[in-house]
Each structure stands twice: as C-alpha cells, then as structure tokens.
Amino acid sequence: MLLRNSLWNLCGLALPAIVALATVPLLIGGLGLEGFGIVTLIGSVIGYFGVLDINLSAGSIKYLAQFHAQHETERFTETFWFGLMFYGLLGLTGTVILYFSAEFLTHYFFKISTELHTDTALAFQVAALGFMISQAQNYLMVVPQALQRYDRSAKAEAFFGVVGNILSAAVAITGGGVVGVITARVILATTHTGWLIWIVHKLGVNLQPRWPRHEIRKVMTGFSAYAYLSRLAVMMHTHGDKLIIGSLAGPVALSFYTVPSQLASRILGLTYRLSSVIFPRVSALAATGQQSQLRMLYLDTTRLLTYLNLMVLGIITLAGEEFLRRWVGEEFVATGYPILILITFGLLIDSLTNIPSLVNDGLGHPRVTGRFALARGLVGLGMVYAGTVWAGITGAAMAHLLASVLMSGLFLLYVHGRTVPVSFNDTLRQAWLPSITTGSAAMILLLPVKWLLPASAIGTMLLVSLAMMALLVAGVVFIINTNERAAVWAMARKLYPGV
Predict the structure, then answer these.
(1) What's the pLDDT at 52?
(2) Are the C-beta atoms of 123 and 172 separated by less than 8 Å?
(3) Mean pLDDT, to the nearest integer, of 421-445?
C-alpha cells in the first residue's frame, strides 16, 4: 500500500510539474518578463497570506488517519467538519484582507511599471477572490490522503494541474494578460473544489454538518498550533525570497531568479511527494504500537529517498545548462545556471530533513519540527535579504545554500535519538552513507560523458538517458534490498501481467 500511495502521490504532482515547466516559455512569451514576474509575485503574496492558516490540515491528516484506524466514526466526522469550518472562515478573512489591500501592494510595495499598474491591482483582487476557494480545495485534498487513498486525490490533482497550466499558457499567448491568467486559474480552482467534494462523498465521509465537541477542538488546535510553525517556515522558504527580490530588484530580476529556481524546486519536489505518504502511515503505526515497523519504515524510506534525491541532483547538474538554453533561451544561461546549481544543492540538503519532520509530526512532536522550521525560515530570510543586497539574485541563491547547511545540520543532530526513534549514527550508517557514496561515485564517473557529448539537444537527451540508466543500475545493485526488489517486481507484474 505504501509503495502504491507513493507512486500515486508522485503522479499527482509530476504530470502538472512537467506541463508547468513546458509552458513557462509560453507564459514568458505571452506576458513578457515583467508580466511573468508579476504573476509570480501575486502567487507569492497569496501564498504568504497562508500565514492566517494554523496548519490545521496537518492535524486533520494525523487525527483523521488515527480515528479511522481506531474505527472512531463520530470523532472522525467531527474532525472533518472542524477542519472544513475553520478553512471556510480562514478563506473568507483572507479574501477580504487581500481584496482591499491590492492597490496598496501594487502602488507602494512592488516596482511595477506604469503600464501594468492597473492590471496588476485588478489581478490581485481576482486572486483574492480565489483565496477562499483555494483554502477549501487544499483542505479537501487531505481527506483521501488521511484515508490512504492517494489514488483519488492524485488523479484529481494531476488532471486539474495539467489543465490549469495549459489554460494559463493559452490565455497568455492569446493576449489575456496577467488578469486573464489569474482569472482562468481561479475558475479552474472552483471546479476542482467541486470535484473534491464529490470524491469525499464517495469515500463515505458524512457530509451532514456536525459541530465538533470540545475534545476534538482542543486536540486539533493543540497539535496544529505547533505544526503551524512548520507551515510558516515553508511559506518563508517558498515565497519569502521572491518577495524580497521583487521588492529590492524588481519583476524582471525576479523572472531570471524564478525560472531556474522553479526548475530545481519542482523536480526535487516530486521526491518529497513520494515521502509525504508516510505521515498518515506513521500516525497509524504509532496508534497501534508497531514500533519495530516504524523504525524499519524510517530507515528504508530515508535510504531510498536520499539516493533518489542524489539522482535528481546529478541529472540537474549534468544537463541543467543546456536544458535552460533550450527551454527558455540563451539569456537565462549565464545568470540562471549558477542559480540553478546553488538552489539545487540547497534543496538537496533541506530534503534530508523531510523524513525526520514527517516522523516527528506523525508521532505527535510538531513542537520540535515547528521550532526548527521557524528558525530555518527566519535565518534564511535574513541571509537572503543580505545576499540580495550584496550580490543580487546570485547572492540570494548563495544565502539559501548556506542557510540550508547550517539549519538542516542542527536539526538532524538534535532530533535523532530524541523525537525520532532512531539514532543519528544508525541513520548515517544504514541510510545516508550508502546512498551518498553510491550516488556521488556514479556522478563522478558520469562527468567525463558531459564533456565528450556535443552541446546540443540530442547530446543533452543522450546525456540524461545515460545518466538515468547508470544511476538506476547503481541503485538496483547497491541501494535497493531484496524485499524492495520483490515488491517492485510484484507491482510491475500486476500492472503488466505479461512481464
């Protein structure tokens, strides 16, 4: 079940991510560099307004999974409705604030040209109306995930994600402008939300309103209050650098930063989707006292995901320069490729904290995860600000990397053997070292291939193919154990009976 859920969760993000990357040149061509930067800024501002969210979705996943495993139907239903009512109120509050602050943000906070000032303010107001819809949509997504039915949530996410990216590009290239792109996204989010309501109903969730008792409200808000710190840190990490760069350097510089950053974050974000399915699984194992299985789950997922992230890093490092040239043009290569490498290494280091954070939260220790995540966000923002002032967007990327090394290292040293029921030495010996040494050796052996192949589209495709093949072979031989090979083979035979 865990492997199936991981693959479904990956597909839910992978297909939209691929289409999103493919449509970036169309968006830039249709909107221009400043227009593309404005759309990015609007997304970052909307994302930052998630500060109103105390991350009740994390508590919902934990307790919906727990009550479902314990067959506590009434508590399950009350938990669902508490979350839905909370996000409805949150969405309404955020919409009102965003709508009436649109003109202020456009005029005083960002460096928007006079020609695009009116369109930007209107686009902010349209996005504000979509904020309420997005809050309901994001909450409804967690219900099938808590029930470990990632196939249902992933199918909807993949379909609407692909359609949304194609629709945005179509509106941009037909002259819809910034307002048209934002409006199209809001309309599609509304449709997606209606579809999720139908999915939740089909999964047997009681849609008749139920007021949650005090016990449910207390346990949910108590858990989520600390998980909120992690969410706040994610918002800082995801949107803070863009707001700083947009404010200090303007939308054009932000476009040169966002394009390579988006490439790295979207690709490495796919591997996080594989790992995130262990959160409800950890909650269920903890609720039923299966500690040995929990330890095995932690070490196995850490080993596999570390190697997978190294594979991604290797391919980005080897082919990123030529890919940027073919993807968005020569003007992005000189500035964009160093940023791509710096951001990728920073995200790789950050990824080492993903599994420990999910286990912490699943075991009921969001306080530790939240405090470290908030510290990471604050330190990162301060360093990005200083780096942007010092060396522009390259300085911002360097600051990201330094903050990742410092704060991720401190977090990993602290949690192992304390809130994570596996020691640091055991994790290093059984998970990190095998993956890092195997992946690094394969990458070193592949470097000469990059210099031998021609700098062309065919050469890049051949390089990526050879790299994937070599890294996969090394993973099968040195990383995947016998039981994991058997599980993959069994799934392959189920999907393709002739294999």
Answers:
(1) 57
(2) no
(3) 92
Phi and psi of 416, rounded to 5°?
A: -70, 130
CA nearest to 62, candidates 315, 280, 220: 280
Helices (H), 352-432: 354-362, 366-415, 424-427
What is the rounded CA–CA span in Å between residue 435 and residue 307? Answer: 5
Query: 79 is written with which tokens?
Result: 């938990």
Contact status, residue 136 vs residue 193, Cβ threshold 8 Å: yes
112-154: pLDDT as tens digits: 777 878 888 888 889 888 888 888 888 888 788 777 776 777 7
What distance in Å separates the CA atoms of residue 467 and residue 16, rounded to the nearest whole number? 24
Q: What is the widest separation between alpha-carbon atoms in the chain? A: 67
Q: How far apart are CA 390 and CA 384, in angstroms?
A: 10
In DSSP terms, 420 is beta-bridged to 416
pLDDT tens, residue by residue, 328-372? 878 888 888 889 899 889 988 988 998 998 888 778 787 788 788
Contact 206, 77 (CB under 8 A): yes
Structure tokens at 379: 């330190």
Q: What is the DSSP string of 128-170?
A: HHHHHHHHHHHHHHHHHHHTT-HHHHHHHHHHHHHHHHHHHHH
37 pLDDT above the threshold of 80: yes
Whether 154 contacts 12, CB under 8 Å: yes
Dist CA 24 CA 40 (whole Å): 11
- Contacts for 458 with CB less than 8 Å, ≥ 6 apart: none
**Token pair listed for 195:** 């579809």
Q: H-type helices in 241-365, by residue range?
A: 241-248, 251-276, 278-287, 291-328, 333-351, 354-362
Q: Which two tokens stand for residue 383?
A: 């360093």
Contact 397, 383 (CB under 8 A): no
**Residue 181: per-residue pLDDT:** 92
- Provide the sign of the torsion angle of the four alpha carbons 352, 358, 361, 364, taken in this order: negative
Contacts of residue 381, defined as CB under 8 A and 6 or more positions apart, other chains included, come to 236, 240, 241, 244
Residue 434 pLDDT level (bands cut at 50, 70, 90): very high
Query: Measuring CA to CA, which residue among 338, 275, 332, 277 is closest to residue 303?
Result: 275
Nearest residue to 97 via CA among 51, 162, 63: 51
d(CA 298, CA 103): 48
